[in-house]
């Protein structure tokens, strides 16, 4: 097959190099799949603890203020589907404490509910490491997003009101259409409390 041994070594080297590259590619793919599985299957366990920071409350009129904010997430009596979701705004005598619960409805579909313990249930939807919700209170539309990135939780709540008249020009659609005006945004970067 090979007339001399020197012709054999370049083919052997190339085959060995291809084998090493394929092995490395397989190892990288396994690590990626494990990382995705861990991050998606470990919620809300990987969010447990107390997170603290400052919330910035801004209005479209240019007004703003900062308020201390804490979010506490803990399992309730070793129940794998119910967690405390306690939000504290402010400090001292002026603090406001919201004792909510996070309830898993369908973890496979990423469906959770914030139970405000007064009959109000807010649907939350998890995509990756982010929780999204949108709900209406009176004429206000509220949209929330809470995302874990590295060792931080990023929280955002935007408030909208319907505009007095939807802007429609040459619209041929026969569907109901509403437009909303942004009123304000609350945002916070929360760090774990040791």
State the low-pLDDT regions, or none: 33-40
SSE series: HEEEEEEEEEEE
**Spatial order of the strands in the main sheet?**
1-2-4-5-6-7-8-9-10-11
For the terminal residues, how far apart are their CA atoms?
A: 68 Å
What integer is the average pLDDT?
Answer: 83
Radius of gyration from CA coordinates: 26 Å
Predict the CATH topology of the largest domain: Lipocalin
Largest sheet: 10 strands, antiparallel, barrel
Strand content: over 45%
CATH class of the largest domain: Mainly Beta
Name the CATH superfamily classification of the largest domain: Calycin beta-barrel core domain
Number of helices: 1
Helicity, as a percent range: 10-25%
The dominant shape is: globular
What is the second-level CATH architecture of the largest domain? Beta Barrel
Structural class designation: alpha+beta
Number of domains: 2
Number of strands: 11
